[in-house]
């Protein structure tokens, strides 16, 4: 057991070390980090000045809002489309539903750059180039199959008897959805939304192809870092990471819930 | 309310599950459909509820053809084997659900729920989550939800099979009492013949897609119409001996073990084993 613990600590450090460096770069005074010949590995001369300087003004706020809008829109489009798709697939015979699901997932095997360029060209004609809805639609290509897969599982775990019961009790399709199916599928829907949101949040390829000029945060961080504006890149990265951490923690709760194993008792 | 089934036929792919089931179920009758597992009992019930459509045949309720009506327009109540309680709701919300669907007034709903909860002895647990109550209580809640809406008839799909043996006997008595009190038409599906015998006014034995025999429990036990029914009904299958009606040819004579009297007549047999059954 001890060795397992030790191993997990080593692995944990391996993954957390870059985050630690990011933290140092963000909060240490620059003379101990990017201006030092031998950068310190310990917190020294902690300051908020780096963040303050970088996060002020539209240079940060614009891409941040753009990322937020895109991710939220991706989440919404995905969930709205994946709920009926997942529900329909869950009520189909398996021999029919599985091939469809596999086919859906195959679209994810195609490299984004291969699909991204023709989409960008098409979007110029459709006036969706350089727009948030355009990017959101492109990213939904990836998230929709995943979300459909998740929701198919969620709806499959809701016993059919419940549906029959609701109909016998006098509920039409709308009431059946709003009173029974959607509340029960809640955790699955939340998981699908959050996964889509997170995917869009750090998606890069489609973002740089479809919104190349005033882009989302990942693209902005990339251009800041490559153009030598390190402090801005660092500050953005830090702010960029926080929602992901928060959402991962929230998601964890849902992912260990019983709903994935069909634990809904009739 | 009378329920009349006319030539109900249903098949899944090549498998014929129901092959022309016809019967008239009288108002206020406790009608039990008995048959081995996988004989289409539940399918028949689902057809009566409107969840499944028959391939052929009609269902007449009180003189009205309801064959093509969706379940929400039939006013039937159904209790499923797993109770199908809405897990996202409390006991009260579960019982209220069918009334809310009918847009009943708030006060009326509350009054009815209170009354039915009283009747079934679940007034104390009304505000608990249905996932937090015992199996016996869940069964009562499911029953309460069925009763509260005052349906034209009740469909029950093995509602007692998830209870332990002792609870089952108690619930059985209660169910019968409830049915007499409500004067409701109960259509009850089971594979447990003890249950069928103790509950039913009439039992229909479903076999090979047809009602092999429809009769009162005693009649079914003593005068089975076919050999299959004779072997299916009873703790032990009926015994058969080859015989002959003089001048008319060969027949088989069936008899129940308890009909045998020892020490009379000319036949001889050997006791192979003795089992204690507690009586």
Keywords:
A: 266 residues; mainly alpha; MetI-like fold; 2 domains; 11 helices; globular; disordered C terminus; B: 6-stranded mixed β-sheet; 4-stranded antiparallel β-sheet; 12 strands
Can you summarize this structure?
With 266 residues, chain A is an all-alpha fold.
Write a structural description.
The complex is a heterodimer of chains A (266) and B (279). Helix content of chain A is 74%, strand content 0%. By secondary structure, chain A is mainly α. Chain B is α/β, with parallel strands linked by helices. Chain B has a six-stranded mixed sheet, with helices on both faces. In chain B, strands 2-1-4-5 form a four-stranded antiparallel sheet, covered by helices on one side. Chain B has a two-stranded antiparallel ribbon with strand order 11-12. In chain B, helix 3 (106-120) packs across helix 4 (135-148). The model of chain B has no long low-confidence stretch (mean pLDDT 90). Classes of the chains: A mainly alpha (266), B alpha/beta (279). Chains A and B meet through helix 7 and helix 8 of A and strand 6 and helix 2 of B.
């Amino acid at each position: 057991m001890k060795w397992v613990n030790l191993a997990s600590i080593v692995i944990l450090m391996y993954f957390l070390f870059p985050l630690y460096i990011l933290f140092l770069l963000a909060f240490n005074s620059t003379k101990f980090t990017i201006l030092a010949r031998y950068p310190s590995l310990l917190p020294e001369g902690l300051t908020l000045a780096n963040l303050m300087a970088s996060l002020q003004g539209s240079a940060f706020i614009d891409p941040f809002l753009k990322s937020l809008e895109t991710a939220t829109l991706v989440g919404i489009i995905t969930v709205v489309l994946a709920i009926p798709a997942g529900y329909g697939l869950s009520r189909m015979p398996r021999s029919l539903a599985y091939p469809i699901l596999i086919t859906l997932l195959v679209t994810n095997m195609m490299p984004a750059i291969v699909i991204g360029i023709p989409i960008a060209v098409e979007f110029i004609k459709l006036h969706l180039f350089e727009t948030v809805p355009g990017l959101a639609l492109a990213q939904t290509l990836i998230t929709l199959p995943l979300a459909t897969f998740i929701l198919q599982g969620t709806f499959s775990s809701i016993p059919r008897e419940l549906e029959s019961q609701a109909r016998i009790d006098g509920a039409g399709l709308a009431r059946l959805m709003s009173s029974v199916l959607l509340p029960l599928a809640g955790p699955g829907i939340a998981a699908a939304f959050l996964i889509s949101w997170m995917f869009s949040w750090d998606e890069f390829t489609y973002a740089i192809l479809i919104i190349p000029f005033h882009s989302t945060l990942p693209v902005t961080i990339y251009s800041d870092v490559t153009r030598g504006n390190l402090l801005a890149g660092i500050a953005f990265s830090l702010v960029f990471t926080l929602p992901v951490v928060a959402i991962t923690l929230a998601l964890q709760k849902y992912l260990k819930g019983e709903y994935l194993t069909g634990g809904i008792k009739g | 309310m009378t329920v009349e089934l006319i030539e109900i036929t249903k098949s899944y792919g090549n498998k014929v599950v129901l092959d022309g089931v016809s019967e008239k179920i009288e108002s206020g009758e406790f009608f039990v459909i008995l048959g081995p597992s996988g004989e289409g009992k539940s399918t028949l019930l689902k057809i009566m509820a409107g969840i499944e459509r028959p391939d052929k045949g009609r269902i007449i309720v009180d003189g009205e053809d309801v064959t093509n009506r969706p379940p929400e327009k039939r006013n039937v109540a159904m209790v499923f084997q797993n109770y199908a309680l809405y897990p996202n709701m409390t006991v009260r919300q579960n019982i209220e659900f069918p009334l809310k669907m009918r847009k009943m007034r708030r006060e009326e709903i509350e009054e009815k729920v209170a009354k039915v909860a009283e009747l079934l002895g679940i007034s104390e647990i009304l505000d608990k989550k249905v996932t937090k109550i015992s199996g016996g209580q869940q069964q009562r809640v499911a029953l309460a939800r069925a009763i509260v809406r005052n349906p034209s008839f009740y469909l029950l799909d093995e509602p007692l099979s998830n209870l332990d043996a002792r609870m089952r006997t108690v619930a059985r008595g209660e169910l019968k009492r409830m049915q007499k009190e409500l004067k409701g038409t109960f259509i009850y599906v089971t594979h447990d013949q003890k249950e069928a015998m103790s509950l039913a006014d009439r039992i229909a034995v479903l076999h090979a897609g047809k009602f092999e025999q429809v009769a009162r429990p005693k009649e079914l036990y003593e005068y089975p119409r076919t050999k299959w029914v004779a072997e299916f009904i009873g703790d032990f299958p009926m015994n058969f001996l080859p015989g002959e009606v003089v001048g008319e040819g060969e027949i088989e004579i069936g008899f129940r073990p308890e009909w045998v009297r020892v020490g009379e007549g000319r036949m001889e047999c050997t006791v192979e084993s003795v089992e204690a059954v507690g009586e």
